[in-house]
């Protein structure tokens, strides 16, 4: 066999190494060359085949390419629009959800328009100066911006009734704040009182100035809490309704336990939107910030699975990223006098149709790059629109039932908690989470399903 034949023979027999013109190329180089040689239509088709569609009726997933090949899908006689006879309450519920889903876009657009209008500069320049120096989202001062009035707006009742979102209390949780003893001792109802004697009479006149709030003064006597919310779903819709608003009557079910929902710091980079979140008690999920909030006797809620769990979200699934998430347990040990409370939201993953990417697809790489660069990512999803039921970013009307479990108390403060201590409390946490899941799964439509820990 001559030298040219030997080269051709080696190209055919060796799948990993080929010799041509005296140079060696790895299997990865060959793969890249093949990728470049594919036509755009082939790449598009492979990407479609790598996407799996998860929705009602397709809980096990279906390749998107096969779904698009179905003749009924692309030849629907008409778009399924909302009926004009829809009750006005349902319309208001849809608008409340549309506001929440797109609120960051609306406020970002308002900011750009206000900056472009010279008439608004008298407002925008002082605000932007304040925006640049204010560190409230990261220094624990969200407790000063926490507005019970804003959290209690009727808007949030409409938001929660849309799905609906329901909170289920399965155990009594001692309140953090109880009525102060000063209330029983006839504490002054006014900030300033002036007593003037009407001489020469023995009578006097009392002038009361600046009446105090009618709210009963309270003091911190009980433990604080770290609520762990599972699963994340696409956007943790249930966590927002239950923990960031009074739409589910949080203060009635759990009186004396003010709670701050924690999210990524990126959301506080949009002017006005950051102040909107802070007034709802939403703050950043950094360790330093969480410790400061807990030090002020406020409880916190953490969506434990985070962005990584969002990528695994499927309709009707119970896939959790939890085994390797121990930071919230360590946070409880370092604080002391804290209860760790598992919460499971049945139906959180059912509100959107999901397009899940394959590990080797370009779309998956784009999602992971976005997560590495910006700290978060979201799956590809769709549901319905404001005026139609076929396509849009408004979630479906699917019930979300949030079961709040029993607290796992950490009485002692650990200066430097060991791995064994963290694992011990995490095990207790997982056991309680599994208990409430198995006890209530049949009641809320998860019969026959098991918790699946993907990480």
Automatic annotation (TrEMBL):
<keyword id="KW-0444">Lipid biosynthesis</keyword>
<keyword id="KW-0808">Transferase</keyword>
<keyword id="KW-0472">Membrane</keyword>
<keyword id="KW-0256">Endoplasmic reticulum</keyword>
<keyword id="KW-1133">Transmembrane helix</keyword>
<dbReference type="GO" id="GO:0006071">
    <property type="term" value="P:glycerol metabolic process"/>
</dbReference>
<dbReference type="GO" id="GO:0005789">
    <property type="term" value="C:endoplasmic reticulum membrane"/>
</dbReference>
<comment type="pathway">
    <text>Lipid metabolism.</text>
</comment>
<protein>
    <recommendedName>
        <fullName>Diacylglycerol O-acyltransferase</fullName>
        <ecNumber>2.3.1.20</ecNumber>
    </recommendedName>
</protein>
<dbReference type="InterPro" id="IPR007130">
    <property type="entry name" value="DAGAT"/>
</dbReference>
<keyword id="KW-0319">Glycerol metabolism</keyword>
<feature type="region of interest" description="Disordered">
    <location>
        <begin position="1"/>
        <end position="21"/>
    </location>
</feature>
<feature type="transmembrane region" description="Helical">
    <location>
        <begin position="104"/>
        <end position="131"/>
    </location>
</feature>
<keyword id="KW-0443">Lipid metabolism</keyword>
<keyword id="KW-0012">Acyltransferase</keyword>
<dbReference type="GO" id="GO:0004144">
    <property type="term" value="F:diacylglycerol O-acyltransferase activity"/>
</dbReference>
<dbReference type="GO" id="GO:0019432">
    <property type="term" value="P:triglyceride biosynthetic process"/>
</dbReference>
<comment type="similarity">
    <text>Belongs to the diacylglycerol acyltransferase family.</text>
</comment>
<dbReference type="Pfam" id="PF03982">
    <property type="entry name" value="DAGAT"/>
</dbReference>
<comment type="pathway">
    <text>Glycerolipid metabolism; triacylglycerol biosynthesis.</text>
</comment>
<keyword id="KW-0812">Transmembrane</keyword>
<comment type="function">
    <text>Catalyzes the terminal and only committed step in triacylglycerol synthesis by using diacylglycerol and fatty acyl CoA as substrates.</text>
</comment>
């Amino acid at each position: 066999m001559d030298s040219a034949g030997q080269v051709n023979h080696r190209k055919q027999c060796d799948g990993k190494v080929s010799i041509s013109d005296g140079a060696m190329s790895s299997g990865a180089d060959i793969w890249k060359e093949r990728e470049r040689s594919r036509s755009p239509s082939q790449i598009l088709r492979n990407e479609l085949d790598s996407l799996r569609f998860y929705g009602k009726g397709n809980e096990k997933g279906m390749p998107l390419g096969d779904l698009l090949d179905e003749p009924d899908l692309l030849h629907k006689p008409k778009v399924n629009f909302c009926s004009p006879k829809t009750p006005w309450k349902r319309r208001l519920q849809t608008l409340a959800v549309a506001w929440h889903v797109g609120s960051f876009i609306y406020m970002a657009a308002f900011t750009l328009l206000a900056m472009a209008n010279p008439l608004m500069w008298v407002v925008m320049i002082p605000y932007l100066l304040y925006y640049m120096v204010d560190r409230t989202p990261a220094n624990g001062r969200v407790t000063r911006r926490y507005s019970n009035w804003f959290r209690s707006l009727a808007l949030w009742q409409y938001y929660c009734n849309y799905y609906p979102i329901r909170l289920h209390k399965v155990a009594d949780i001692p309140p953090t704040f109880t009525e102060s003893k000063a209330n029983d001792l006839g504490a002054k109802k006014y900030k300033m009182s002036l007593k003037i004697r009407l001489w020469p009479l023995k009578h006097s006149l009392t002038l009361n100035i600046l009446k105090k709030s009618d709210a009963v003064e309270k003091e911190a006597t009980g433990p604080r809490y770290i609520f762990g919310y599972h699963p994340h779903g696409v956007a943790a819709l249930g966590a927002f309704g239950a923990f960031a608003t009074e739409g589910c009557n949080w203060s009635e079910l759990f009186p004396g336990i003010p709670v701050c929902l924690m999210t990524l710091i990126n959301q506080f980079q949009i002017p006005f939107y950051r102040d909107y979140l802070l007034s709802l008690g939403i703050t950043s999920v950094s360790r330093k910030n969480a410790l400061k909030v807990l030090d002020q006797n406020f409880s916190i809620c953490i969506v434990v699975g985070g962005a990584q769990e969002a990528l695994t979200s499927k309709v009707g699934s119970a896939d959790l990223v939890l085994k390797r998430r121990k930071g919230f347990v360590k946070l409880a040990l370092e604080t002391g006098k804290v209860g760790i409370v598992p919460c499971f939201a049945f139906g959180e993953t059912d509100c959107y149709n999901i397009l899940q990417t394959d590990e080797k697809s370009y779309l998956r790489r784009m999602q992971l790059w976005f997560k590495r660069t910006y700290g978060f990512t979201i799956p590809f999803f769709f549901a319905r629109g404001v005026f139609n039921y076929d396509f849009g970013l408004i979630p479906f009307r699917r019930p979300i039932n949030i079961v709040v479990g029993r607290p796992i108390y950490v009485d002692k403060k650990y200066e430097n908690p060991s791995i064994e201590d963290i694992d011990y409390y995490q095990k207790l946490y997982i056991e309680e989470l599994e208990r409430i899941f198995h006890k209530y799964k049949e009641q809320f439509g998860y019969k026959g399903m098991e918790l699946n820990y993907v990480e």
